[in-house]
Specification:
With about 130 residues, this protein is α+β, with helices and mostly antiparallel strands. The protein has a single domain, classed as 2-Layer Sandwich (Alpha-Beta Plaits). About 40% of the residues lie in helices and about 20% in strands. It is built from four helices and five strands, in the order αββαβαβαβ. A five-stranded antiparallel sheet has the order 3-5-2-1-4. α1 packs antiparallel against α2. It is globular, with a radius of gyration of 14 Å. It starts with a helix and ends with a strand.
Length: about 130
């Protein structure tokens, strides 16, 4: 994901269903992994969302690289966010990840505007922190 074309494809993939299937709060595309804090809307599962992201972005990455086959690791880490404090910690952690890795002027990080705290507590879905 060091390749800017692949990172852009992944960013586009995240944005595609934002506010349709889920609400993105923050994401970061690192050179060899990603972090996302997302709140799924009712009727959409974490497994299906992750599968969609991985499937589409893997096809695009393989196209860019001229390769085929597996692009992502099979497993991923997820964490259910249960409180405002955990939410704030997760958002900070993801947003600050490039700086902690000494990536200067890293452009592959996005944080939702000021409405993130208020909308995270709405009924109807769980907020998740993900790493792949």
């Amino acid at each position: 994901m060091r390749n800017p074309l692949i990172a852009e494809e992944l960013a586009t993939t995240f944005r595609h269903f934002d506010e349709k299937r889920y609400r993105l709060f923050v994401w970061c595309i690192m050179p060899n992994h990603i972090h996302v804090v997302v709140r799924l809307f009712p009727g959409h599962s974490l497994a299906d969302t992750i599968h969609s992201w991985k499937s589409f972005s893997a096809k695009q990455a393989n196209r860019v690289l001229g390769t085929h086959g597996a692009f992502w690791q099979r497993e991923y880490y997820d964490h259910l966010i249960r409180s405002e404090e955990e939410f704030e910690h997760a958002v900070r952690y993801v947003a600050e990840n490039p700086a902690k890795a000494n990536l200067k002027h890293w452009k592959w990080v996005w944080v939702r505007g000021r409405d993130a705290r208020a909308t995270a507590a709405e009924d109807g879905g769980a907020t998740k922190a993900l790493g792949a």
